[in-house]
Design a protein that fits this description.
By secondary structure, the chain is an all-alpha fold. Helices cover 69% and strands 0% of the residues. It starts with a helix and ends in a 5-residue tail after the last helix.
Length: 255
Amino acid sequence: MKSVEILANKYERVLQNRDRRLFTEFLVRGYRQTTLESVPQELREQVVYAKVCLGMLITLYDDLADNPLYYNPKLLHHLYRLNLGELMLAPLGLSAQEQKIFQLARDLFTELELGLRCFVNYVPLKEILIFDIKQIFLANQYAELTTAHPTIRNLTESKAQGPYNMGMVAAGMIDLMASNNFKSEELGALREMFIKGQRLGRIGNLLFTFEREKKEGDVTNEILLHGDGGKSLRQEFANGIRELYQLHACMEGVI
């Protein structure tokens, strides 16, 4: 997607710590494959672009929270104040590079909101998406605290907080914003499906980023708490696929 290439260029002018294919290939393909069938064909690329904006924001915040080379709680404190409709200017006291990062995050939120405004259900679902973005921030804050205080790590909290860093509930809400046949009474069941899918996405992320994160000195990966090299996570993934399939079957004709 040409628009994503432009966005990736903007990202790389500020930060060069990620392979651009994460944005231009992995996120684009992943969001296309997981877009709900209820999204009209003519809106699908707009939906994918909006979700790439979201994915870039998650990546940006994540690196500042759990990568020791970029760890910056002071900057994150200000970045957590950004959201849809809440685009404050960069505060005083930031370094030149921190100002560039803040402006990048602000620009990504601007792009995200501009893309969402044209969707039929943007207004009724905006408040919920804002909440979901705050959930992403909360997951990021947990990773930030874990980086600073590794002894707080525990499986229960990691399973509760960590998956929201995937942003799949928020991405699902973007799909619903663009869905003409969305019925509000189905929202709870759909969000339950998004949450289950988000956990599965989180497991895949944990398994396939572990070696890179270990080299970076990242201590937030849940595999470190299991002590079995990821075996239990693979089993949870297999069980989760079956549960998600059953949930999809119950929602046939809706999604």
